[in-house]
Specification:
The protein is α/β, with parallel strands linked by helices and about 425 residues long. The chain has two domains: about 1-20 and about 230-429, Enolpyruvate transferase domain (UDP-n-acetylglucosamine1-carboxyvinyl-transferase, Chain, Alpha-beta prism), CATH 3.65.10.10; about 20-215 and about 225-230, Alpha-beta prism (UDP-n-acetylglucosamine1-carboxyvinyl-transferase, Chain). Helices cover about 30% and strands about 25% of the residues. The protein has helices at about 20-35, 50-60, 95-105, 125-135, 165-175, 195-200, 235-245, 265-270, 315-325, 345-355, 390-395, 420-429, and strands at about 1-5, 15, 35-40, 65, 70-75, 90, 110-115, 135-140, 145-150, 160, 185, 205-210, 215, 225-230, 250-260, 275-280, 290-295, 305, 330, 360-365, 365-370, 380-385, 405-410. A four-stranded mixed β-sheet has the order 2-15-17-16. Strands 4-5-3-14 form a four-stranded mixed β-sheet, covered by helices on one side. Strand 8 (about 135-140) and strand 9 form a beta hairpin. The radius of gyration is 21 Å and the shape is globular. The two termini are about 25 Å apart. About 50% of the residues are buried. The protein binds shikimate-3-phosphate. Shikimate-3-phosphate binds near residues 95, 167, 313 and 337. It holds the Pfam family EPSP_synthase. It catalyses: 3-phosphoshikimate + phosphoenolpyruvate = 5-O-(1-carboxyvinyl)-3-phosphoshikimate + phosphate. It is found in: Cytoplasm.
Length: about 425
């Protein structure tokens, strides 16, 4: 059990470079592995999830070296992966699991995927069903891990996604690379587009139509290894953006944060609520990046619906926290995907926020939160529900509470942000 830091006397101060982007770090290893030549990833995220991806590809016969946050991948090409004698352990990582399913579906060997208790409860049919339409042979355990993939030659597909999910889209793109003819994927809504951007940079041929949701993938590319610097993770920066917006007297600058517009939902929401953020963008050839400076502000309530969800999906627990201090009633809806994350994040947020006396009401697809009600601690022992993002949002909430709070499962931060508590301490000094 970790004792959480409470209300700081003078706010949060200073500059921070947050660790590399989780989504991009995963994809860097995967695309590097199926390319020819060397891929160098600088500012790689060395969190448990990304290390699950790294270890899985080593097991599939890809030489990969890591020194600190620099990773070198010796690509084996699209058809150079080798069968692993043991099951591949996905740990807690949904991104590793779903993307690798797409890649392994078209290989000429079989693989078994296993994961931890949380990952083993998460839905995998959203990937296995469309892959089956491409000719893949995948056996799930009642729609969950363990999953066995018997690699088969794949056919092209014309598929309309049923959920707004970058993981499903990316799995299908990785499968489509191995088909004989071009495939078309149509999303319900645009989701993070890191796979598309990176694949183009590695020499892949895919187009996104003007509608922003129709992607055509050309098969059998010869991908070429690349050198890339991974931007800071917006989803990690988001914890300090929220803290600096809410804790009086703060001023925080977050350096080199990824500003891909499919990921900047929190930035837009915070601005709409009246947040004080200035952005200094930097010229890049790849993913957009910039420095963010955040100060506290009086926040207005907000209504968010389905259209805004994908760009803020991982930051919704933080939106709930901002709403819990806003000057009115906020409504967050269309976010039912939160129920199938590392834990049911709607239920976890409601349970834990109620311990702080926050006026939050559970909805099937979100929350209603009245920020005008003063908080009062009803239970000082908070629980991360074995979910890194719940653990971190509760640690930020503790900065707004006078009395001491404890956190069960604080170790979960290792999944996406192992240095989270150290970085928070730096800003509190
Ligand atoms: C991710 C996509 C999102 C997100 C996850 C990372 C990715 O999941 O929540 O943390 O890297 O593609 P879904 O695709 O399930 O929405």
């Amino acid at each position: 059990m970790r004792a959480l830091k409470g209300k700081p006397a003078g706010g949060l101060h200073g500059e921070l470079v947050v660790p590399g982007d989780k989504s991009i770090s995963h994809r860097g290893i995967m695309l590097g592995a199926i390319s020819e030549g060397i891929t160098t990833l600088t500012h790689f995220l060395t969190s448990a999830d990304c290390l699950s991806t790294l270890a899985a590809f080593q097991q599939l016969g890809v030489p990969i070296e890591r020194t600190g946050t620099t990773v070198t991948v010796h690509g084996v090409g699209l058809h150079g992966l080798k069968a692993s004698s043991k099951a591949l352990d996905m740990g807690n990582s949904g991104t590793t699991t779903r993307l690798i399913m797409g890649l392994l579906a078209g290989q000429n060997f079989s693989s078994t995927l296993i994961g931890d208790a949380s990952l083993s409860k998460r839905p995998m049919r959203r990937v296995s069903e469309p892959l089956a339409q491409m000719g893949a042979e995948i056996t799930t355990t009642d729609g969950h891990l363990p999953v066995t993939i018997s690699g088969k030659p794949l056919q092209a597909v014309n598929y309309h996604l049923k959920v707004a999910s970058a993981q499903v889209k990316s799995a299908l793109i990785l499968a489509a690379l191995q088909a004989r003819h071009p495939s078309t994927l149509v999303e319900i809504q645009p989701t993070r587009d890191h796979t598309e951007r990176m694949l183009r940079a590695f020499g892949g041929e895919l187009t996104t139509a003007a509608d922003g949701v129709t992607i055509t993938v050309q098969p059998q590319p010869h991908l070429k290894g690349q050198a890339m610097t991974i931007p800071g993770d917006m989803s990690s920066a988001a914890f300090f953006m929220t803290a600096a917006s809410l804790v009086p007297g703060s001023q925080v600058t977050l350096k080199d944060v990824g500003l891909n517009e499919t990921r900047t939902g929190l930035l837009n929401i915070l601005r709409e609520m009246g947040g004080a953020i200035s952005i200094q963008t930097e010229p890049t050839t790849g993913e957009p990046i910039g420095d963010l400076t955040i100060q506290p502000a009086r926040l207005k309530p907000i209504d968010i619906g389905k259209a805004q969800i994908p760009a803020v999906i991982d930051e919704l627990p933080l939106v709930a926290l901002l709403a819990a201090k806003a000057d009115g009633v906020s409504h967050i809806s269309g976010a039912e995907e939160l129920r199938v994350k590392e834990t049911d994040r709607i239920s976890a947020i409601v349970t834990e926020f109620k311990k702080l006396g926050i006026a939050i009401e559970e909805q099937p697809d979100g929350f209603i939160i009245d920020g005008r009600q003063p908080w009062h601690v009803e239970d000082p022992v908070l629980d991360a529900h074995d979910d890194h993002r719940i653990g971190m949002v509760l640690s930020i909430a503790a900065l707004l509470v006078q009395s001491p709070l404890k956190l069960k499962g604080a170790d979960s931060v290792r999944i996406s942000y192992p240095e989270f508590f150290d970085d928070l301490d730096k800003l509190l000094q």
